[in-house]
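Chapter review: from sequence to fold.
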Amino acid sequence: MRVVYRTIAVAAGVAVLGAGATAVLLNRDDPATAAPRNSAAAAAPSVISASSASSAAAPAAGAVATPGLSPLSSTGASATPGADVDAVSSPAASPDTADVALAAALKDPRVPALPKNGRRLRTLPGRAAAAHGSIKDRRSGVALPRFTKTWALATPAPFASRQLLPKVKGASYRGMLVSCPVPIPEQKTLRDTAFLAARWTLNHHPSGATITWTASQPIKAGKRQGWLLGYTVHYTLKGKKRVSAAALALVDVPEKKPAVVFVTIPDSQKKRWHDINKVMSSVKAL
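The token string follows.
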């Protein structure tokens, strides 16, 4: 009997071992049990890709955060040089040129030397014409009255702005108000530059015209400095001696040549002489 029991026990043990081996062999090919091992391997590449993407995006994020690299600052930098070029488009004359021009003017018998002491512009007769706002001459950098009705806007060339009084029957000249960058060599002082500019205005009067001074004074044109000259222009037309009342304001303009505002009115239109006071008191730098 003992032999029989031993035989049964051995057979049972062999059966158990065989079942275990079979289970191991079956589990090796079971996809459900293989998935965890493969899923861990598949997850690793996705983590690496995410970290790589983050490191690749980091420089771009850093560039946006860097101060001073905004698109606006780049645009502004490209626009500034153009403005600077426009601002220095009218360079001042060299010292030699200025000295020669001033020396020639001082020898010109048509233009006496300026009075040593200041002389204020007197109030001229008449009433000022109606004005509506101002003309903003951006080329020259000044604003001046925009007269209505009596004065008319005219083609500005060769100036930057021009207003004219109506023609007078039998008269060759009429009142004119203009503005422009100073068309003569800039001098060391506003006073000397204004002196040369007044001499230049004789080109817009009858041939042989001469000047006598009625005013010479510093002025404030808005927030900028300037110099005012008043004068009478003497000339002869058709054998008769005639005069025009005239004045100019020379205004210091930032980063440009000084601006000139010049007005002249012949005695045939002397009712408008007071407009000269209106102009000279209204000139301002832009």
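Two observations follow directly from the output. The CA atoms of residues 136 and 143 lie 4 Å apart. The beta strands are 131-137, 142-147, 152-153, 161-164, 176-181, 210-221, 224-237, 240-251, 259-266, 284-285.
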